[in-house]
C-alpha cells in the first residue's frame, strides 16, 4: 500500500471516530440508551467515551502519538463491545433494523483490525 493510500485510510479512520465522538455530545440521550443498565451514570459514560473517541481520533493523525492512539482505539472498541451486544439483544428499544445491529458485531472486529494496522506491528 502506498504512503498516500495509507494516510488516506488513516484520515478516514480518524474521521470516523471524530464524527462518532461528536455524535455522543449531539445525541447523548440516544447513546445513553445503549449503555447497559448495569453500568452507572450512562450520560457521563457517553460523554467520556465521546471525548476519548475525539481525542484518540486526533492523536491518530499526529505521527508522535499515532501508535498509542491505535492501541487506545483497540482498547476502546473492546470496552464498548458489551454496549453493542446489549443494543442487539434489546433491538426493540432502537430505531435500527435488528439485522444492522447484528452485522455491527463482527464489524467491530473489522474496526479493531483497522486500528491494528496503525500500531506499527506486523500480523
Structural overview:
Helix content is 75%, strand content 0%. The two termini are 15 Å apart. It has six helices and no strands. The radius of gyration is 15 Å and the shape is globular. Helix 2 crosses helix 3 (42-60). The protein has one domain (3-116). It is mostly helical and 123 residues long. The mean pLDDT is 94. The chain has helices spanning 3-26, 28-34, 42-60, 66-79, 81-89, 98-116. The relative contact order is 0.13.
Keyword list:
123 residues; mainly alpha
The strand count comes to 0
Major β-sheet, in short? none
Any idea what the shape is?
globular
The mean pLDDT is 94
Ends distance: 15 Å
- Secondary-structure class: mainly alpha
In the predicted model, the low-confidence regions spanning at least 5 consecutive residues are none
**Helical content class:** over 70%
The proportion of residues in beta strands is: under 5%
Helices, by number, come to 6
Rg is 15 Å
Number of domains: 1
Order of helices and strands: HHHHHH
Topology (SSEs and partners):
Blueprint: H1 3-26, H2 28-34, H3 42-60, H4 66-79, H5 81-89, H6 98-116
Task: Give a brief rundown of this model.
This protein is mostly helical and about 120 residues long. It is built from 6 helices and no strands.
